[in-house]
């Protein structure tokens, strides 16, 4: 399986790069991660529980980082075994490019699966991989996003709106009344 995509992350490249090297951030961002430990130099050990179609398994594996170019690029290589469910192994090249809104993160993944997982077919596996990647980046963005300032509460009576109390109110009907007309 091969997959590539890019995502916009609202944080500077240095912050995104540091997050990708932090086991606590990875644990928080990888869907189904039970444990992520280790270091950049020695590699990470991870335990991830996922359900792919009818197959649910806990994968335990090793992840190593190489070709590290600070704040620009890194290569991730990993292998995990899920017992009777099978195995997954592969790698990803991740590139970080400064953008107007933060960082454009691009990745190219090549992965192989075996065992019961491989029997599910490439359509299910590819869809699952895309969903996992998308969820990872949503989680990463949420983790890196600055706290949103609370929006100022507005009082409708204070607005310059000409529609005041005399304005017609919308007809409120429940779904049953809409269907039956009663």
Report on the structure:
The protein contains 5 helices and 7 strands; from the N terminus they run βααββββββααα. It is of the alpha+beta class and 182 residues long. β5 and β6 (87-99) form a beta hairpin. α2 crosses α4 (122-144). It is globular. The model is unreliable at 149-164 (pLDDT under 50).
Question: What key attributes describe this structure?
Answer:
182 residues, alpha+beta, 7-stranded antiparallel sheet, globular
Shape: globular
Head-to-tail CA distance between termini: 56 Å
Give the structural class: alpha+beta
Spatial strand arrangement across the major sheet: 1-7-6-5-4-3-2
**Total count of helical runs of at least 4 residues:** 5
List how many beta strands DSSP finds: 7
Unreliable spans: 149-164
- Using the CA coordinates, give the radius of gyration: 23 Å
Mean pLDDT: 81
Biggest β-sheet strands, sense, barrel: 7 strands, antiparallel
How would you summarize what this structure contains?
Helix content is 26%, strand content 41%. With 182 residues, the chain is of the alpha+beta class.
Protein topology:
Layout: E1 2-9, H1 13-20, H2 23-29, E2 33-39, E3 43-52, E4 55-69, E5 73-81, E6 87-99, E7 102-114, H3 116-119, H4 122-144, H5 175-180
Antiparallel strand pairs: 1-7, 2-3, 3-4, 4-5, 5-6, 6-7
């Amino acid at each position: 399986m091969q997959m590539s995509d890019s995502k916009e992350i609202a944080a500077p490249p240095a912050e995104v790069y540091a997050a990708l090297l932090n086991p606590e951030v990875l644990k928080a961002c990888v869907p189904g991660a039970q444990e992520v430990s280790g270091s950049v130099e020695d590699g990470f050990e991870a335990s991830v529980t996922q359900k792919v179609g009818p197959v649910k398994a806990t994968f335990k594996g090793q992840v190593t980082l190489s070709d590290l170019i600070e704040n620009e690029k890194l290569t991730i290589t990993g292998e995990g075994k899920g017992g009777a469910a099978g195995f997954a192994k592969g790698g990803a090249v991740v590139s970080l490019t400064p953008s107007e809104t933060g960082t454009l993160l691009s990745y190219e993944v090549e992965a192989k699966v075996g065992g019961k997982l491989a029997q599910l077919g490439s359509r299910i596996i590819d869809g699952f991989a895309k969903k996992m990647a998308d969820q990872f980046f949503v989680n990463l963005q949420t983790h890196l996003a600055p706290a949103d300032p609370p929006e100022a509460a507005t009082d409708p009576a204070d607005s310059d709106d000409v529609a005041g109390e005399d304005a017609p109110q919308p007809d409120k009907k429940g779904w049953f009344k809409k269907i039956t007309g009663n």
